[in-house]
Amino acid sequence: MRPGRVLILVVVAAIVAAGIAWAFASRIRSPAEIQAETAPPEPSLITVPVEFIELEDAVITSGTSRFEEPVAVNITAEGVIEVAPERGTEINEGDVALVANGRPLFVLDGDLPMWRPIIPATEGSDVVQLQESLARLGFDPGPVDGVFGPRTQGAITDFYASRGFDATQPSETQNDAIESAQLGASDAHDAVVDARQAIADLDDSILLDEGVIAAYAAFAAAQAAQAAAEQALAAAPPGTGPAELAVLQAAVEEASKQVVTTGNGFEAAKASAAATIEPERKQLVEALDLALRSRTEANKTLARLRKTTGVSVPLSEIVFIDGLPGRIDTVPVARGDFAQGVVMTVTGQNLVINGSLPRDRWTLVTEGDSVEIENRDTGETIDGVLSLVADESGTNGVDASRYYFEVEPINATEEQFDNLRNVSVRLTIPVISSGGRVLAVPLAALSLAADGDSIVEVENPDGTTRFVKVDVGLTTEGTAEVSPIDGDLAEGDQVVVGR
Fold first, then answer.
1. Is 236 part of a structural domain of the chain?
2. What angle do CA 141, 144, 150 make, to 5 degrees?
3. For each of the chain's 499 residues, which pLDDT tens digit applies?
4. Of 187, 282, 308, 495, whose CB has the highest number of CB atoms within 10 Å?
5. Is there a single domain that holds both residue 356 and residue 466?
6. Which CATH number does the domain housing residue 483 bear?
7. pTM across the whole model
């Protein structure tokens, strides 16, 4: 091997050995170096800026928005449908939903079903509901008293006529019954008159009895003698002696006695004659009593028929739906079909938004509170009002520990209403506000000084900190309103919330 190559190899070996020695030496650390490298880093401050905002505490919950459930319209008419409902059309109170066999099916607003025909003199809450509907439609039913009387019948007649139909009038059979009852009442009245006349004639016959006539003649003569004696006494001239006056006075007294005697005789004669006809009179009195009772019953029958005969409302011609106007959703029948059973379903136009709250949130709200309604699907918000808050938990199908509520949208457009159909909504109910923009910091920035006052620690631009004593106002959702009372604090200052 040449000397030059040997030299190169020696130099290379020296360099490699030196590198290995340096690498080994670089991995050897002193205890001080190891302790320095493994010590925790210098602590740093965690700060957030002071905000200048309006604070508001609110109850935030979820709700369900939907329109009222569809109502199935059933009818009991027997006939063929001539005019069928049209799906998707709006239906208002007083509209004709369909026509079958020439007769209408009217739709009125109410929560009670039409469960019976309404005929004259019908009474009940269903009649009240009908009267209220007629009044809303502009047809005066008279007093809303729940009685289907003449004025309400007149209102029904006018209502039908305004829609091009005739109200249902009394049948021929009903009219015949009234005519027959009128004849019966008239005959019963005549029988009473005849019975009374028969009794009067019999009583008059007493005066034609011979004994009564003779007794009356004697009574009349005695009365005439008494009058003559009294006149003679009165006509005695002045100076008439006592003896003569005594005679005249005695004549008057005697005549008076005769009047009494003959009068008693006359009464006795009449009593005797009456006793003779008493059996016959008793029969006549019994006949009169029977005639009176028959007349009373006949008049009652006539009054009842008159009261219950008139305009009526068949069961198949009116259906009540709560919450009109509505929209016809489905129509399972068509023109020419037999009218029976379900002929359509109607959905109310009222939007129902409801939900429930736990007790601690329920105590913060009240009916009439403003509500922000957020459509979770579109992000759109509309205003609303808390229209119902249950007084007890567990009502309306919610959990026993929660309280049911309803929200009514206000000033919403038709498109907004449509977008809310059957969606979940976010409901925000403000319950308290700062009333304007205020300085606000996280609750974590607040601590207590030695004297018990609230303080915040503020980081200065040079990294030092200072403490500012503050007055704490409204707190909500982890944020507090603060006002500096000792020291400076402004929007944008960095307050310490951790280290």
1. yes
2. 40
3. 444 444 344 434 444 454 544 344 455 555 555 555 555 555 689 999 999 998 888 888 999 887 666 788 877 666 789 998 888 788 999 999 999 989 999 999 998 988 999 999 999 999 999 999 999 999 999 999 999 999 999 999 999 999 999 999 988 888 888 889 999 999 999 999 999 999 999 888 888 888 899 989 999 999 999 999 899 888 888 888 888 888 889 989 998 999 999 999 899 988 988 888 899 999 999 999 999 999 999 999 988 888 888 999 998 899 998 888 888 888 888 898 887 788 888 877 667 899 999 998 898 899 999 999 999 888 899 999 999 999 999 998 899 999 999 998 988 887 887 788 778 899 999 888 878 899 999 999 999 988 889 999 999 999 999 999 999 988 887 899 999 999 999 999 999 999 8
4. 495
5. yes
6. 2.40.30.170
7. 0.48
Question: Is the distance from CB of 135 to CB of 144 less than 8 angstroms?
Answer: yes
Pairing of strands 326-330, 90-91: antiparallel
Distances (CA, A) of 369 to 138, 159, 329, 354, 372: 35, 41, 34, 14, 10
State which residues form the domain around 11: 3-38
Domain boundary among 257, 278, 308: 308
Strands 479-486 and 423-442: antiparallel
Residues 276 and 411 in one domain: no
Statement to judge: residues 367 and 255 lie in one domain? no
The tokens of 444 are what?
């974590």
* 404 and 466 both lie in a single domain: yes
Q: At which of 292, 308, 324 does a domain end? A: 308
